[in-house]
Amino acid sequence: MQRRDFIGKTIIGTAGIAVGSSFMPIGSRVKGANDKIVLALIGAGGRGTDTIISNCKVNANVEIKTICDVNDVKAFKTIATVEKELGYKPGHSRDMKEVFNDKDIDAVWIATPEHWHALATVWACQAGKDVYVEKNPTVCIWEGRKMIEAAKKYNRIVQVGFQNRSAPYAFSARDYIQSGQLGEIVHVKSYNMLGGSKWEPQADSPVPQGLNWDAWQGPAPSRPYNPGIHDMESRGGWGNFWAYSGGTLADDASHVLDLARLVLGDPGHPKSVYGWGGNTAWGSSKETPEFQSITFDFGKYAHTCESGSSTNYMKKTPQHIRMDPTLFPDWRTNATRTEIYGTKGLMYLGRHGGGWQVKGEDSVLIAQGGGVFPDKDHQLDFIESLRTRKKPNGDLEQGQLSATLVHLGNIVYRVGNKQLFFDGAKEKFIGNDEANKLLRRKYPEGYSIPDNV
Q1: Which residues contact 258 (CB under 8 A, 6 or more apart)?
Q2: Cα separation of 326 and 323, whole Å?
Q3: What are the boundaries of each domain within the chain?
Q4: Are 191 and 311 in contact (CB under 8 A)?
Q5: How many CA atoms lie within 13 A of 381 on its CB side?
Q6: How many other CB atoms are found less than 10 A from the CB of residue 12?
Q7: What would the DSSP string read from start to end of 350-390?
Q8: Alpha-carbon distances, residue 116 vs 54, 119, 237, 301 (angstroms)
Q9: DSSP for 226-263?
């Protein structure tokens, strides 16, 4: 099926979703604890499968009606996993528009590659569906603003998959800082120093059976199938290409930056950003850099981020520590820590578990708060938000501010590793047309986000 034919067939009967002007969403109503909430999974990879099943286990009266993916291999595998774990067999769809048109479905769980997050969220809001969307929520700054507008216009709950925003230990770290016990904040360092190896390009190949490649590309530019981008069974290498992702910075550093923002009281946009990045570690030719070093100017302090796939001796917090609130990682070689320097002490902060500790002179332990991986907390919060219509912990406004840090760091790299000044109110760069061109991307016919959502 050609891309034009696919678009034509999926638009039939869904003009309101595609255009947005004539579609009237389903009215919101508060659901009681005994009311069933029906979900659909869009994007049947490992992360989406695991989290939506967990969501159904930790919340009562929640079920999955449909698994939607353009990759039949992954879809059928997820359907079988759901049947094994939850005791029933969900339906299958290859077209998310069918999901949006299904009046039985209350909310969608979007776990596609990043380039689909924004458009799928906007379409879902227009169709009257609530949304859980994985990080990073966008591939450009403009998309985030459109997502916010759509959620507000159609009165939708949208929870971004920044799970640390539901972590009790994150709240206690924020309370400690706000109490003044850390003193005045003078500097913040976030790390996402992961391991890796040299990226090698692969030749284009025929589209595998069971995959709608045109639909997988969706809002990204059309290109031939490449096994270095997509894999029928595993995650694939799409994170190495700007068309689909913001690279390592968007994948894991987005969590670290978002958590840091939360405990610091959720500051707004930075005044400027300076960055360095490149493929100097392994010498590969991939688009997204092997390593980046970024400095954000927040006025009263600078917030730096070191991110890449070049330091194999650095490790994420071990799983047994992530799940035990009495244990803390070795901060010295913890790959995804944040360090918050106050005038009275230094706070070490773990991502997705690991808690926080404050140390003073001679590394004396001053205070600490244990914490575990907050996936289940985030899932509980999402369903509570659907039932009560309260603002979710992973609100889109804060998701946009955190995602913007990712985009600022990447744009600095893409325009030549220089300092850029940013107008936060307008979400535009000051005096740099080259950088402003990267605030928004071009979309192929049938997959665009309209200015008026």
Answers
A1: 135, 162, 164, 165, 398, 399, 402
A2: 9
A3: 3-163+377-391
A4: no
A5: 22
A6: 8
A7: -SSS--EEEE-GGG-EEEEE-----HHHHHHHHHHHHHH-P
A8: 23, 6, 15, 34
A9: -TTT--SSS--SGGGSTTT--HHIIIIIHHHHHHHHHH
Stretch 260-280: mean pLDDT: 98
Backbone angles phi and psi of 272, in degrees to 5: -155, 170
For residue range 45-81, what is the model confidence (pLDDT) as tens digits?
999 999 999 999 999 999 999 999 999 999 999 999 9
Q: Write the burial class of residue 372 (CB in 10 Å: 0-12 exposed, 13-18 middle, 19+ buried).
A: buried
Looking up tokens 């820590």 gives 337
- From the list 276, 268, 270, the residue with the least C-alpha distance to 294 is 276
3-state secondary structure of 212: coil
Nearest to 257 by CA among 439, 371, 413, 248: 248
Q: Report the distance separating Cα 350 and Cα 334, nearest Å.
A: 8
Strand partners, 109: 41, 132
Confidence of residue 31 (pLDDT cuts 50, 70, 90): confident
CB 137 within 8 A of CB 160: yes
3-class secondary-structure state, position 65: strand
Give the Cα separation of 213 and 290 in Å (integer): 27
Q: Are strands 185-194 and 130-133 parallel, antiparallel or unpaired?
A: unpaired
- Could you tell me if 275 and 295 are in contact, meaning their C-beta atoms sit under 8 angstroms apart? yes
Q: How far apart are CA 46 and CA 254, in angstroms?
A: 19
User: What 3-state DSSP class applies to 276?
Assistant: strand
Encoded tokens for 99: 């999901």
In the CATH scheme, what is the code of domain 3-163+377-391? Answer: 3.40.50.720
Token pair for 160: 């971004």
Q: What is the mean pLDDT of the chain?
A: 94
DSSP 81-124: HHHHHHSS--EEES-HHHHHT-TT--EEEE-S-GGGHHHHHHHH
Residue 125: pLDDT above 90?
yes
Residue 370: φ, ψ to 5°: -75, 160
Rounded distance between C-alpha atoms, residue 50 and residue 134, angstroms: 13
CA distances from 379 to 56, 165, 170 (A): 9, 11, 16
Rounded to a whole number of angstroms, the distance between the first and last alpha carbons of the chain is 28
Q: Which residues on neighbouring strands pair with residue 39, listed in sequence order?
A: 64, 107
